């Protein structure tokens, strides 16, 4: 068996969530997916496709009507300009998109630069390809990469081939301004490095408009997006990968080896979403913001400190110093004693120690119960 595969560990977040789901009556604040249903008009489009027998293979890169709809949507939303014939591939979620991009780019001995804390697939994807993840601890810089740090790391790590940027971020919810992105692009420009910009939460931003890195540094950037978070379509498994034609053609080779093509029914649902679902995220985004504000206020009153997230649906909270600082022990004890599930921050890598990740893709009632249970638990934990 392949040593690089044997060395990969099962994702801790999945194991913890499975354990949480096995507990009757648990309040689960771990889940990174919308708790809203997929909009009705999208479901109806999928049902119609099934009834019309549109249930066969499509071309590997995706139905051309879908790719055209994606191209127009990304232009209208983010002023991105991608040729649907050569610069877009539809993948089985962004997870497969990242995997296929890493496989297309990396060779043994290469390095992947990852701001940390980070979503948990990026490092193992690098390991699988014989590359090494290089982590930037962002916990001292408000969970953002600064230009000075980026420059220093690139100068001391000449084998970096990919800079993985995820914004709005999972697990912290922080994002970047246009000025901040331009400052990073100035450091990256004209280097032999691809930027993989995971922007799956681009429609879930609060009080500001998302700026795509594909607009800032288009010649080096591979943009990842999709409908999972914006349109409550996690189970449909649609990812969108966009970038320069020469690299997209290579990513498509890996994609077709892995999947042939994504599910035809998902593609017809996605055509409807991209053509007629421009406003679908609005009401969900408004409710997420109200939930964020309630959870953030409650956590602050209990002494938990975290940056105010301006995107996604996560709060990344520092455990108060007078409580247990081992975040894994804290989360396990909380699950056992209060039946409240919150993910340990260290699951997300360097800089996540002594933190907890709360998902507010949950009902207001669950958020209220979360705060009550957390208050009860912390009363008995104070040193």
UniProtKB/TrEMBL annotation:
One Gene Ontology molecular-function label: transaminase activity
Keyword tRNA-binding: no
CDD domains named among the record's database cross-references: AAT_like
EC number: 2.6.1.-
Keyword Transferase carried by entry: yes
Keywords: Aminotransferase, Pyridoxal phosphate, Transferase
Cofactor(s) essential for the protein: pyridoxal 5'-phosphate
InterPro entries: Aminotransferase_I/II_large (IPR004839), AspAT/PAT-like (IPR050596), NHTrfase_class1_PyrdxlP-BS (IPR004838), PyrdxlP-dep_Trfase (IPR015424), PyrdxlP-dep_Trfase_major (IPR015421), PyrdxlP-dep_Trfase_small (IPR015422)
Single Gene Ontology BP annotation: amino acid metabolic process
Domain (Aminotransferase class I/classII large) ranges: 25-365
Family, as annotated: Belongs to the class-I pyridoxal-phosphate-dependent aminotransferase family.
Protein name per the record: Aminotransferase
Phylogenetic classification of the source organism: Bacteria, Bacillati, Bacillota, Bacilli, Lactobacillales
